[in-house]
């Protein structure tokens, strides 16, 4: 088998006898803890909230590590629904009359007042 995989026999047995690293063991412990918190919080928390919950429990862990562990475990926080603009059903509103007649030039000051609402999100 080692010849077909182009791996030395000694390298295979070294890999097979190798114990798990401290980081892998800690990742397993954190993954179990993350899964428990995820279930307790009804699958709501994302990476930031999960990291805050772990920190409140006394576990120092970075958000990148929490992201990696949650992704590996297949956990994803709930996202808020996209904002949807709604309108009031009913009759069509009557447009305001055009008192200026689309002529915005004035002979003297304070005769015609105009405004701009381009900052309003539509």
What report would you give on this structure?
With 122 residues, the protein is an all-alpha fold. The protein has a domain of 52 residues. It has four helices and no strands. Helix 3 crosses helix 4.
Key structural traits:
122 residues; mainly alpha; 4 helices; 40% helix; elongated
In short:
This protein is an all-alpha fold.
Structural Rg = 31 Å
What is the count of helical runs? 4
Distance between the termini: 66 Å
Mean pLDDT across residues? 87
Total beta strand runs: 0
Strand count, sense and barrel status of the largest sheet are: none
Which series of helices and strands comes N to C? HHHH
Low-confidence residue ranges: none
The 3D shape can be described as elongated
- Helix amount: 40-55%
Note the beta-strand portion.
under 5%
Helix/strand structural class: mainly alpha
Detail the topology: elements first, then pairings.
Elements: H1 9-17, H2 22-40, H3 47-56, H4 63-73
Helix pairs in contact: 2-4, 3-4
């Amino acid at each position: 088998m080692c010849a077909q995989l182009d791996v030395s026999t000694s390298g295979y047995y070294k890999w097979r006898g190798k114990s798990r690293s401290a980081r892998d063991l800690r990742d397993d412990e954190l993954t179990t803890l993350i899964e428990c918190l995820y279930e307790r919080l009804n699958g709501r928390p994302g990476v930031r909230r999960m990291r805050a919950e772990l920190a409140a429990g006394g576990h120092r862990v970075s958000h990148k590590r929490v992201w990696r562990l949650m992704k590996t475990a297949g956990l994803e926080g709930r996202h808020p629904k996209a904002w949807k603009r709604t309108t009031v059903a009913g009759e069509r509103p009557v447009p305001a009359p055009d008192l200026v007649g689309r002529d915005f030039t004035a002979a003297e000051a304070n005769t015609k007042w105009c405004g701009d609402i381009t900052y309003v999100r539509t």
